[in-house]
Structure formats: structure tokens, C-alpha cells
Amino acid sequence: MKQLDPKAVWLFFISFVLRAFIPIIFLSIYGAVILSDLGKSLDNGGEFSFGFLNWLWIIIPVFLVLCFVWAKLTYHFYRYELTDAGFRKELGVIYKKYVTIPYDRIQNVDINRGILARILGLSDLNIQTAGMSATVSRYGVMGGGAEGRLPAVSMAVGEQLRDELIQRTRQSKNQGL
């Protein structure tokens, strides 16, 4: 099985940091407000020390290291291949997910390049299938999504995979005639 482009580690890392950034900012502001109120309510008239800010010099680097380790693990366990039966991928660090998409179910193959992916020279390959145009979760239908998303492949590999998938899809649909 093939792995994603090695620059995928950086794409995953930045994605993890940005996804966690908003909750961390919210919790930091909430914590500062709580500690500020606590400082105002001290009866002894002493100053309240914001010693928790000193912990940020430890917390932030540890958080960044953990995000990088998780990105490396995500990259290591994300694999794909084109088999005789269809497109196959496996992913997941803790919970493994195995997806096989038969060629005769493939409807469309798209290549997306977001701003960060373009900076890194990467592409996302989206394989859309018959009957799977919406992502369904335990919360209901969540909108359009591709069943076979392959993030962070190089531009050349993405275009090569798209062409190969389209060719195999055409061959599998013409075999029954």
C-alpha cells in the first residue's frame, strides 16, 4: 500500500493546531475572567497573582509537540492502493477504518487544492460514489461529501490517480455490455 506525500505531516499538524486553537482561546479567556473575579473577591486585600500565565510557557510547547506526534501517527497509518476490485484505503491511529470503493460505483473524481495545500504543493482527491453524495452521521445528514477522500497527495500523484481511477471506472462499466 502507498502512503500520502511526506508533507502531509505538516498539513495534518497545522490542521490539528487550528482546530484546537478556538477552544483553547475560549477556555483561556473564560479562565482569565474567572481568575479575575476571584482576584477581586479576595478579602485579605492582597493582590491576586496570575501565575497560571507562567504555565503557558510549558503548556503551549507540550501541546505543539503532541499535535506534531499525532500528525506523524496520522500520516503513518493513512494508506491507499488501487486493487483489481476497487480503490482501497485504511486510516486511523486508535480506531482503524477500512474503505473499499468498487470502480463501478465511482461517479466522479475531483481534485481540490486549498490555500495551505497549494503552499505545500499538495492536493486532495475526492472520489464520489453512487448513493453517497451526503455525509451521514449520528446527528443526521451533514451535507455533501466524498466517500473516498484522499488528502495530501502531491499534485502529480493526484492527477495520475484521478486519470487511473477514471480509466478503471470506464473499463468496469463497459465490461457488462
Please describe what this structure looks like.
The chain is α+β, with helices and mostly antiparallel strands and 177 residues long. It has two domains: 2-75, no CATH class; 81-174, PH-domain like (Roll). The protein has helices at residues 8-40, 52-76, 115-120, 155-174, and strands at 2-3, 79-82, 86-91, 97-102, 106-112, 122-129, 134-137, 140-144, 148-154. Strand 2 (79-82) and strand 3 (86-91) form a beta hairpin. The two termini are 32 Å apart. The model has no long low-confidence stretch (mean pLDDT 82). It comes from Candidatus Zambryskibacteria bacterium RIFCSPHIGHO2_02_FULL_43_14.
Chain-wise SSE layout:
Elements: E1 2-3, H1 8-40, H2 52-76, E2 79-82, E3 86-91, E4 97-102, E5 106-112, H3 115-120, E6 122-129, E7 134-137, E8 140-144, E9 148-154, H4 155-174
Antiparallel strand pairs: 1-2, 2-3, 3-4, 5-6, 6-9, 7-8
Helix pairs in contact: 1-2
Short description:
The protein has four helices and nine strands. With 177 residues, the chain is an alpha+beta fold. The mean pLDDT is 82.
